[in-house]
Design a protein that fits this description.
Layout lengths: L1 E2 L25 E2 L6 H5 L23 E4 L5 E2 L13 E5 L2 E2 L4 E4 L6 E6 L8 E10 L8 E7 L16 E8 L11 E8 L14 E6 L9 E8 L2 E7 L10 E6 L9 E7 L6 E13 L14 H28 L8 H4 L3 H51 L7 H39 L6 H30 L20 H30 L3
Antiparallel strand pairs: 1-2, 3-18, 4-18, 5-8, 6-7, 7-18, 8-17, 9-14, 9-18, 10-11, 10-17, 11-12, 12-13, 14-15, 15-16
Helix pairs in contact: 4-5, 5-6
């Protein structure tokens, strides 16, 4: 597979690598004739990674069954253990694990790091979903990120922080343009049988089995890659990181008739050079793929017989110790009886009754709060009536009302009558609340024999009482807002007249003239007194 278009597509090579005059779009991945990678690389023997015909592989009618493999996966939160390690994984170099992600390399120059699985993968078909983020300040970054499936752990090396001449396949997210052809950032699929040396100068384009141009740096959302190896076909799907949709994948590249080691390790590595990016991996999820209709291998079949016997023996020992401790506890505490298992969990009916009682308790608390508020309003009205009555008494004692002054007295009597009626209505509301509280208390003491229908009926009664209280309060508020029944405050006494501006200016001028005359007279007297000496 080769990336056509641009300078990178012009290769004047003899043999099967010479392309015809036809043109293809820049993004097209064109399959070549089925030749081995050994012929392509010129003399390498024994490599079994080759390309199929230009059909692009066959599509299955049914999707394969997926089973999550936790021993080959990691994701946050709580990604690391107390000692800083990653369960079932090992990290080397400058990799920095944290609770939410693994920083393969920080944004410093000449850094390398990688993470690898501790256990080998022994199933044939798999699918890996990787969530990562590559971010940096510059327009260009370096060097890139790589995902591996190899026969051995390539802990350190020159190829994106991992070892060269690997036996397996690597998916490279190359962010630096080494060959200067402006074909980066790019995603490449490069296979190796252990004898191939990676071509850094050409960004691996001469060795890539599949490639696509995708910008994965500085995206608003993490970039997701889905790598599927199923029926000897390797497919790479990419989520560009522009949307938070986890399933928004687009096709990148596919390699058919690809043979990889039957057992191997998964790994993720990254490296920086003169330029530096932060290479963060948020999650790596691995799924085992099984063909539809094929019987799945039981989990117990993956455990060796020796481990099974050891685990069974440990379980028997723990069970024996537990039974022994139970017997000792019962002998020491014969009066203590354990709670029955069926009493620990509540039934559906018990849960419904508990929810009904909790609702009634909340209503009861709300009604109590309303009762307190009404009592406060009643006290305020009483204080207001008493204050008005005292004021009227004081006015009557201070001075006798004039003959035409009967109208204010009538208004005050009207106000007092209105307030008394308000007090009467508030007492009625208080009695209604008391009846409602009694009904709620009676409902709560009925117990489990009440039934769902009676609980609903009590709720309806409480609702009706609340509506009656609300209407009564609104009616009282409307009556108290009448303009004719409001108590008018007496008019304030007239303010005393102040000195006007012209009078103030005349007074200031006269005072100034008198002061100046006094000063002149004083100076003349002092001058006349000096002549006698």
């Amino acid at each position: 597979m080769r990336l056509l278009g641009g300078p990178s597509s012009q290769h004047n090579r003899a043999g099967p690598w010479k392309r015809g005059p036809e043109k293809a779009p820049e993004w097209a991945c064109v399959d070549q004739t089925p030749v081995t990678l050994a012929l392509r690389m010129g003399g390498l023997q024994g490599l079994v990674l080759d390309r199929g015909p230009e059909t692009g592989g066959t599509d299955t009618a049914e999707a394969p069954h997926r089973r999550f493999e936790y021993k080959y996966s990691f994701k946050g939160p709580h990604l690391t253990q107390s000692d800083g390690g990653i369960p079932f994984w090992v990290h080397t170099g400058n990799a920095i694990p944290s609770a939410d992600q693994i920083r393969i390399t920080p944004s410093l120059r000449s850094q390398k790091g990688s993470v690898w699985t501790k256990n080998t993968v022994n199933f044939e078909n798999w699918e890996a979903e990787v969530t990562f983020r590559v971010s940096g300040r510059g327009r260009m970054g370096a060097d890139g990120l790589a995902m591996w499936f190899t026969a051995g752990q390539g802990l350190e090396g020159p190829v994106y922080g991992a070892a060269d001449s690997w036996n397996g396949v690597g998916i490279f997210f190359d962010s630096f343009d080494n060959d200067g052809k402006k074909n980066n950032p790019a995603i490449l699929i490069v296979g190796n049988n252990g004898n191939l040396v990676y071509d850094h100068q050409n960004d691996g384009t001469t060795q890539a089995l599949g490639t696509c141009l995708r910008d994965f740096r500085n995206k608003p959302y993490p970039v997701r890659a889905k790598i599927t190896y199923y029926k000897k076909s390797l497919t790479v799907m990419i989520n560009n990181g522009f949307t938070p949709d986890r399933d928004d994948f687009e096709f990148c590249a596919k390699v058919d008739n690809m043979v990889i080691p039957q057992e191997g390790y998964f790994g993720i590595s990254a490296a920086t050079g003169g330029l530096a990016d932060d290479h963060d991996v948020l999650s790596f999820l691995l799924f085992r793929l099984t063909e539809p209709g094929q019987q799945q291998e039981p989990v117990a079949a993956e455990i060796p017989d020796e481990d099974k016997d050891k685990y069974r023996e440990e379980f028997d020992n723990f069970q024996h110790e537990l039974d022994k401790k139970k017997e000792e506890f019962q002998k020491e505490h014969p009066d203590v009886q354990g709670e029955a298992v069926e009493d620990i969990y509540e039934t559906v009916n018990d849960r419904e009754i508990r929810q009904v009682f909790e609702g009634q308790n909340r209503i009861h608390l709300e009604i109590k709060q309303l009762h307190r508020q009404l009592a406060m309003i009643l006290d305020e009205q009483r204080r207001y009536v008493s204050a008005v009555t005292d004021e009227i008494t004081k006015q009557q004692q201070a001075q006798a009302p004039p003959a035409p002054g009967q109208a204010p007295s009538l208004e005050l009597e009207t106000v007092i009558a209105t307030q008394q009626e308000v007090l009467k209505n508030l007492n009625e509301l208080r009695n209604a609340f008391s009846e409602t509280l009694k009904q709620v208390d009676a409902t709560q003491h009925e117990g489990n024999a009440a039934g769902a229908y009676e609980s609903v009926q009590h709720f309806n009664d409480i609702k009706e009482h609340l509506h009656v209280v609300k209407r009564s309060i609104e009616h009282l508020a409307q009556r108290n807002e009448g303009p004719g029944e409001k108590v008018k405050c007496p008019d304030p006494p007239p303010m005393p007249s102040c000195l006007s501006t012209p009078h103030f200016l005349i007074f200031a001028a006269v005072q100034s003239v008198l002061f100046i005359g006094y000063v002149m007279y004083r100076s003349q007297q002092e001058a006349a007194a000096k002549k006698f000496f």
